[in-house]
Amino acid sequence: MTAQIEIGTDSAGQGICVDIEELLATRLLVQGNSGSGKSHLLRRLLEQTAGLVQQVVIDPEGDFTSLADEFDHIVIDGAAHSVREIEALAGRVRQHRVSVVLALDELEVEQQIRCAALFLGALFDAPREHWYPALVVVDEAQMFAPSAAGELAEETRRLTLSAMTNLMCRGRKRGLAGIVATQRLAKLAKNVAAEASNFLMGRTFLDIDMQRAADLLGMDRRQAERIRDLQRGHFLGLGPAISRRPVAVHIGTVVTGGKNAAEGLMPLPEAKGDELEALLHSELAEEAAEPVRPPPPPRPAPDVEQAITERAAAQAEREERGEPVATNEPCADEDSSPGPQDGEAAVTRIVADLAAEEGATFQSSAVLFRNFAQRCRQQGVPSAHVDMLEFRRLFAFASARLHELQSPMREAIEELAQGVPEDVLAPYLALAVAAAQGRPAPDEDELARVYGSSSPSRIRRLLEHLERQGLIVVREEFGGGRTIIVVGLDEAAAES
User: Fold this and answer.
1) What is the CATH number of domain 4-251?
2) Where are the domain boundaries for CATH 1.10.10.10 in the chain?
């Protein structure tokens, strides 16, 4: 039995079908410049297969969330979940065979990549009894499997390349059929693109991309010119699930839509110049003084039993990997072992010393945690209760010098920081500490040091992300100055 869906029509108006069972075994690569109809093709494929097979969509722009309006897809907001929640959700997606859209549009680029990599990794690592067939669609795949590092941190690049390579190379045995779409083949890692056996190539103009597309389609250089002349929504298809010979496909219609801006001409407003100027400047100062959105509510306190179970599992995992694990064994003089409060103070001091070392923020979390555990063991400080997640937060507190503040203000900032994701916690705290001390906001170099980055552009994107999340308000001045307001800090300070 075969399950086929019609993806579109050929030049003669005959239907072109895709064999879904064959697609599950052979994977698909879609390529097309912006405006070529690549997203429309993916939407057609997803709509036609919605009732046949489970679907998982990695959506960096939030274009495919409308699938939930017509079908049974569940939208997962990547910005609303922690790292552990994302991994747990991926496991449940495989277990319960739920079709989902992982929407990443509220995250900055590097966070999108890390979130998608963790989600794909958890899909891949699901238990054998959950290896059900599923289409895994990754839009803008050149982001998640780049051919060059660019401005990505090396750890992030290795993480995402590993996840994408596992999906395309080893995912078939686990029921995962990768469908990757990219604007440019030259920007997509070759070992990821090479694993696809089916191709749908849309319009592209650069010679290097046309030549790679032609090579994959088995066309010579002269025939490759056809790729440049393709109309929007027209693709050249080839592969065991589509056709044994290159075939032209005009993609069919869809019932859902994206959130793209209007692409045609629209009449301009008929208001006069004075009226338009009034619209631009009316109550401008009042609007600029308001935060973009209220800060997110703090996350509820975790269940104690669950936290204990997770910490025990994390410690057992570290032991299996052969990493140093801190113990609660007393020193030679058992009476001199530190009490609970002394132990917490000692842990805080060790983390602060570690964060104060030159270049510490540029080291990986695994290396830092290993050094922390080793120092605790050498000094006889109990630290088994501190898992990797807790250590990251403590290290962020220390990197931002939160311990320099007096108790009421420090506790107020810790309360505000409860809803801040751990990967942007340190720079957020650095801004909050500077504001609490009445100092100017840290410059980009200082924020880059705290964040563990050497890229000023990444810090600018970080500030934009924090502002979109309603955590800060950035006021740019034409003279080059910049004022940063930490939302909720004044109210928290007054309450404390």
Assistant:
1) 3.40.50.300
2) 405-496
CB 441 within 8 A of CB 434: yes
Q: Looking at the domain 405-496, which fold is it?
A: Arc Repressor Mutant, subunit A (1.10.10)
**Helices vs. strands in the chain: H and E counts, helices first:** 21, 13
Q: What is the pLDDT of residues 219-261, one digit of tens each?
A: 776 677 778 778 889 998 889 999 988 888 999 999 988 766 5
Evaluated on CA atoms 243, 246, 247, 252, the torsion sign reads positive
Amino acid symbol at 266:
M
The DSSP code sequence of 17-42 is: EEEHHHHHHH-EEEE--TTSSHHHHH
Mean pLDDT of the chain: 80
Tell me the mean pLDDT in the region 322-342: 46
Q: How far is the C-alpha of 43 from the C-alpha of 134, rounded, in Å?
A: 16
Cα 182 from Cα 177, distance rounded (Å): 16
61 burial via Cβ count (<10 Å: 0-12, 13-18, 19+): middle
Structural tokens at position 286: 């009042």
CATH 3.40.50.300 range(s) for the chain read: 4-251
What amino acid occupies position 93? Answer: V
